Amino acid sequence: MDIRPEFAVVYRHGEWVTVDPEEVDIGERILVKPGERVPLDGVIVKGASSLDTSGLTGESRPADVDEGDNVCSGSVNGSGVLEIKVTSLYQDSTVARVLDLVENQESRKANAEQFISKFSRYYTPIVVFSAIAVAIIVALFGPGLREGIERACTFLVISCPCALVISIPLSFFAGIGGLSSRGILVKGANLIETLAGIDQVVMDKTGTLTSGEFAVEEIIADADLKDKVLEDAAKAEMLSNHPVAAGIRRSYGKAVDNSNLHDASELPGRGMSVSDGDEVILAGNYKLMKEKNIVCSECSETGTLVYVARNGKYEGCLVLRDQLKEEAKPTVDQLHQIGKKCMIVSGDNKEITEMAGRSIGADAAFGECLPQDKVEKINELKKSGTTAFVGDGVNDAPVLVSADIGIAMGAMGSDAAIEAADVVIMDDKIEKIPLAIGSAKRILKVVNENIYGAIAIKVGMLILGAFGIANMWMAIFADTGVAMLCVLNSMRLLKISEKN
Predict the structure, then answer these.
(1) pTM of structure
(2) Partners of 261 in the beta sheet?
(3) 100 counts as catalytic
(4) What is the pLDDT of residues 12-66, one digit of tens each?
(5) Which of 61, 144, 218, 359 is the most exposed place for a label (fewest CB within 10 A)?
(6) Which CATH class is domain 184-209+325-426?
């Protein structure tokens, strides 16, 4: 709901008026000021800025836009005033489609019917009529009515389904409790079976596999100028709160000498400018270099590129990338070891997403996916097996609902993602995904032990009871004793260790 725009400022009858986004027609011009949310899809006809698209793509790096660029509703204008020509009605806009996906996908998820409900539907009448049959047969063809009634009562005590009725849900709840003690919250017993049967795990990139913090990985400049390029970039970005600026300052790793710095200014959609004494330092994108007539060639490296110039002379280019979490590759390796495929579906740049996929050994990587694209991709992947999706952002909510199992990061994840997910990892440690899958398999193993063990003992005792071999003490063991054994077996699931 946070990405839903509340108003649109549209140009009508010679003035700007505030209206509901649903009242704006295609072709009209809207005005978006810094800090406001873009209400409708359109094309920029005037202005330049940086847009925060994290609500749609999950990408923490703001996108620089200029005249002629397309913009999506739900983005937040960071700097600069934009005039946008509307290209789609509100009901067809990106933000409306995202909200519709969340609202309507939920109805497509069916709850698995519990085994005990099916079992009791047939079991109870069968054993009751069987006990009556035992009494009649023994009374007519055996020792007599008294013995027939005793055998029937013994038969009923043995057949009492306490072991199943108690131990099956207890196994699920104990397993869910054990997982919660490890910071893994499962929102229902009916999800355990699906979790255990996962064939492939699809992950979002930003915030899930990456830390959301940028760092300088390459400096494209003459060897003797590399340190100077990084220092000048840190000076230019000293007062900026842009994520890329913060990454440059962290990579510089020292306090910036600001004794001679003055006249710092942000150039919307371009970069930063600052005066260092009598010289001007520029740090920004390639458009900034062209506009200032600074001679340089455009770099082709994958990542966020920051060009640096001092006093009108090009110095070099910084290549920054969102940093992968240390546990990303080991987690993918563990998933491969237990026979699961692992893929990335991200709203980030295609080349960056594919590079991240290669770094962690993912089976496939798909970039530049908006929320509706992610849903389409997940629905396509579901045809080849049970699919889990792991995400943390507002933009991930529709696909978390659409996947067979949605797994959200609970510490840094958005409320929308946590609400939509089936499983929540409270400390954002993705290495707990293999632990959750392995533990779900263990839970089902214990459930099956209880089911087949209890049924086997009861069937054996029922046969003995029908022939008068089993007495009432044996019947009590087959009822209460087996129930207690199943309970004790279920309680093992309260302990979830790393090896699981």
Answers:
(1) 0.70
(2) 276
(3) no
(4) 988 899 999 999 999 999 999 988 889 999 999 999 888 887 666 666 667 788 8
(5) 144
(6) alpha beta
